[in-house]
């Protein structure tokens, strides 16, 4: 739908029922992107069903619902994303990162965001972090996977996650949780472990 190599501003826009063969329906390739009060619904791609991010991006007050991808059901991030007041609901990854995948020394700053009811067949029902950084403010995250990286989450609710491993949290790096709750997570694979 959109491939941006320069400045991108999207506001009060609906992106729905699109199919991208390889990377997200919105591909932020260069410049900077600001997405505000948008709805992403029922989009599909191999990586990042809604967005594939290679440049600094700000996402505010937006809803991501029903995306499907192999990795990063909604968003596949390889840069820096600042996210405030968003909702990620009912998204799915055929492999890892049901709602959000943070990779390649990427940074995710999250505040006042709810990530719930998402799933992945392998790791990180809501979110997977590989060689990146995730910093949370007042956040509700369904499932975090962390490999060789740092996650710091404050006031986080990790709820109702489904993944084969680490339904709530999959961590192979450094994880700090403060004033957080893990509840009703389900590691569902044959070798599933660590439901919380």
Question: Averaged pLDDT, please?
Answer: 80
Oligomeric grouping of the chains? single chain
**Measured on Cα atoms, how large is the radius of gyration?**
15 Å
According to DSSP, the number of beta strands is 30
User: Helicity level, as a percent range?
Assistant: under 10%
Task: Compute the separation of the termini in Å.
Answer: 37 Å
What share of the residues does DSSP label as strand, in percent? over 45%
Summing up helix and strand content along with how strands pair, one would put the structural category as mainly beta
In DSSP terms, counting alpha (H) and pi (I) runs of 4 or more, how many helices?
0
Major beta-sheet overview:
8 strands, parallel
Order of helices and strands: EEEEEEEEEEEEEEEEEEEEEEEEEEEEEE
Low-confidence stretches are: none
* Major β-sheet strand ordering: 1-4-8-12-16-20-23-27
Which term fits the overall shape?
Answer: globular
List keywords for this structure.
single chain, 196 residues, mainly beta, eight-stranded parallel beta sheet, 0% helix, 55% strand, globular
Can you walk me through this structure?
The protein has 196 residues and is mainly beta. Helix content is 0%, strand content 55%. It contains no helices and 30 strands. It has strands at residues 2-4, 8-11, 14-16, 26-28, 33-36, 39-41, 44-47, 51-53, 57-60, 63-65, 68-71, 75-77, 80-84, 87-89, 92-96, 100-103, 107-111, 113-116, 119-120, 127-130, 133-136, 139-140, 144-147, 150-154, 156-159, 162-163, 169-171, 174-178, 181-183, 186-187. It is globular, with a radius of gyration of 15 Å. The chain starts with a strand and ends in a 9-residue tail after the last strand.
């Amino acid at each position: 739908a959109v491939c941006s190599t320069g400045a991108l501003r999207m506001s009060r826009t609906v992106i729905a029922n699109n199919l991208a063969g390889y990377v997200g329906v919105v591909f932020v390739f260069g410049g900077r992107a600001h997405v505000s009060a948008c709805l992403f619904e029922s989009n599909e791609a191999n990586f990042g069903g809604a967005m594939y991010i290679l440049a600094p991006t700000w996402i505010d007050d937006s809803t991501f619902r029903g995306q499907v991808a192999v990795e990063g059901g909604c968003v596949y991030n390889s840069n820096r994303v600042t996210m405030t007041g968003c909702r990620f609901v009912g998204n799915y990854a055929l492999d890892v990162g049901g709602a959000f995948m943070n990779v390649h020394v990427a940074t995710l700053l999250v505040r006042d965001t709810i990530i719930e009811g998402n799933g992945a067949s392998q790791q990180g029902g809501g979110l997977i972090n590989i060689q990146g950084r995730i910093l949370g403010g007042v956040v509700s995250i369904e499932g975090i996977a962390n490999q060789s990286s740092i996650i710091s989450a404050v006031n986080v609710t990790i709820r109702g996650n489904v993944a084969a491993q680490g339904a709530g949290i999959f961590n192979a790096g450094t994880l700090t949780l403060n004033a957080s709750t893990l509840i009703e997570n389900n590691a569902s694979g044959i070798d599933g472990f660590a439901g919380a």
